Protein 1
Amino acid sequence: MILYRAGTDARKITSVSTRNMKRAVGTVPIQTAMHTRAVMARGDNSPATHARNDPMRRFLPTPYAALLPVMGSTVRLETNSSKLLRHMVELFARYPGEPNERPSFLWRIVVDSDVQVAQSWPRRSTFSDEGLRFAQFGQRNFLAVDLEAREGIGSVSESLMEDKLGLTSPFLDNLFCLTVGALGLVPLWANCVAREHRGILLFGKANSGKTSASYAAEKLGLDFHSDEGAFIELDCGALRSWGGFWPATFRPEALQFFPDLKDRTDRCVHRDFIVHHLVKQRARSSSGSSIQPHCCLFLERQVSEVPRVSRVARRDLARLLAESVLFQDDERFREQQSTVLHALEGIPAYVLRYGSNPAVAAATMRDLLAAQDYIDPGRELLGTQYTRP
């Protein structure tokens, strides 16, 4: 997922820096299967014809519509493309619950067959002001969100829409993240690994091994719940974490630990770096459901060849969590964010300093989730050296 990180001055047009981000803007298409879902639709099975003398497509009809379940909320989608409708129904079918007839937000997306794009997913620029957010991909592909109106609009070329992986990320995941605060969620730059609806929020700087460790944990029988984004809410006073709808993304060096990724990922070249998108998923019991955070684990990679687990002091945890907010949100969501972060400060938190083997971090997460001591699940692991997966 590509978004500006916390601390970015989002009130200015800025080109996105992807130096530390794994999710590429240039992508290759993937094949997906259609899920059955309750959908409201109007019109036939072909995109609507463009209105004349409307270069900005402001008056273009959007005859296809669906109510999408989105992490415990409902968003209404309107579009002029049946293909885009089907793709988005597939993506959001992973989330449980029946859509509400009174949606929390409206997304209106126009697919423009007149726009010619010379490259796959042009460089993105972003701008925001109070209550308004804007992201532009090249000259004619854009997203705009009005928080007051609770409405997001987008325009994407037909050729880019055909690239399903690129449509999912960066286009649709950006639309979701521009909306996320209005859905009552706090976005964190974290992974999540779970067992039986209890999970570990996995934090760390870029290249700390979060994705590789999560994948290794899946091989130990845990659920790889989310990659590059955990979306937290307080539900009746209880913390809940949701995972995104985009595929996990690996750096090339991950393949030396997991040769099977060669058959499960699509290789993507973007400017000066290469990533691998996980497109062949295993069945996971908690894939689209929310989980209850059991504890936090911060990874510090290539710090110690002798892996060690230690506690994170609460005063340090407050700072680390604040630094892990995925992006700077609107001022109106400050109280919502503070409440969630304060609640997270109340759960156990640990740091793992290790070398480079993701199996070490995976074993740590397995043992934390297996601990019977919910108040201090890492008590028996403090100072332990891990030598086996």
Protein 2
Amino acid sequence: MKHKRAKPVPKAATMRVLARSPAATRGQLTWGGISVACALGATGYRARKREGDRATPIGRWRLREVFYRADRIPRPRTGLPVRPLKPWDGWCDAIGDGNYNRWVRHPYRASAEKLWRSDRLYDLIVTLDHNACPRIQGLGSAIFMHVAGVGYPATAGCVAVERPHLMRLLAAARRGSVLIVADRRRKRRPE
């Protein structure tokens, strides 16, 4: 009796962000032999992220879910969960609120970022599991990967790349994919 060979399970994609210094607002995002420019937080990157510090957090963050503007772009091809953005979508950034660092529906009783924007930066959003499980009040909210502005202006703490690059990255992503934001000054640990 012949045994059919099982198809190999594709390995989850690992993306890495490196910047020249902790104060850098631009870096390089690499995955699968591809390297592209990316924008980082306005105060660079740091290990001790705090709400409102405008820094990109150092760490290993799972890619969780994709939101996209169906009125502007096609549904991205990806192995991650995907849902179209709606005008009422938001993300709570109010320290002390029970929905801190979670999706909410606008209008919302506390401070919450609007995900439906006119500037196209949030036409495509990848939520990351930064400060997600457990969620700790004040340690940062709404840390996403999203579309970069022209010239890669600094973000409020997210990682941003050009939309075509983000679409290409999502095509390689699946459950278990991670984004590693690393401090170049530290020795790289084996995985």
Protein 3
Amino acid sequence: MVGAHPSNIAMLCACSAALTGVICHYAASIGRAAQLMDKPDGALKLHKTATPVVGGLAALLPTFFVSLFYWTSVAHAPAMLFTVTAATTMLIIGMIDDRANLSPWWRLLALILIVWVVFLLKPVFVLHTLPIDFFGGHLLLALDGWIAAPVTALFIIGFVNAANMADGINGQLLGSVTVWCIFIAYYQGIEVGLPFLALASSALVASIYNLRGRLFAGNSGAYSASLFVALGAIAAYRLPGAKMSAEIPVFWFWLPVLDCVRLMVGRLLSGRSPFAGDRNHFHHLLTRTMRAGYAVAIYLALLAAPGAAAIIGLTWANAVLIICIGCYGAFVFLQHRMSEPRRIERPIFAITSRLRAVFLNISSSTARRQAAVQPETLIQEVAKRSARRAG
């Protein structure tokens, strides 16, 4: 039987990372065999060649095996077993989606059903009270009676959708999952939080291959990993002995959620579906001004900064969060202003064109006058010379 000693936990995390490395190494063969290949379309998918969509499978499958082994051998955490089961189910549905391109509404329906089953079997994941402290102010959000489960489900589904929308450049999703898992493991403790340490290790390995363009996480990775993280965050707050306050996840998840709300509101205002794809995400705006590697680094730094500050104290976390939101808002605003040169420069071009047209008209009129006057001048000159000779 494996003990809960840190060295044994480190060994399990290393095993998870090693299994992930093996799957990533054979990603192309696995992707072709399972028909999980993402082909470029020249519109939203701009990669050059067909790429295997097995990054989520590579990161999550070893994590789930290691977690089940650990919980059956060492730690007894029945609540966390539900997180693995729910995430595994979502991983399978995501793989079907990556292969058959399911409708977003079918994915949403599947996610709702999975979340409700978790609530029915393990009510500890339903939030009933949310005491929130911001800048010294205290707010108690009470979710009594029937409203608790729908509101909690809305939180989870909203975050999962936001995380999926944030999977746009290589290294972004898997890097985000790594950051979130480290935070959750910190608050859950090393024993209960082993699955998240394992996932952080595996996601880090998979992100190396992802950054090289050798594989994608796909919808399977985005939906499954984000659901696992969402349930883990609730467990870190609700399980007995939890030391995490209710507002802490706000400092973790603020960036994808804020960007998701901005995009969905913008799409609705323009008469489009809130689930329609485009290239106006925050990560797309970043890549317009810098290389993808720098964009990922800035994105992850903004994402992690408030959560890291929360470990020091809530006052620091609130201040850092406001600074990060300000940076996000200013960058998005400037990028939208810069991406509309026609609206800004059209009056200048119009005035220039009109001045040029007026100048050409004046020039052509002068030339016509000169052309009309020139024959009369020659006739008069000839007449004068004839008169002189006659005199």
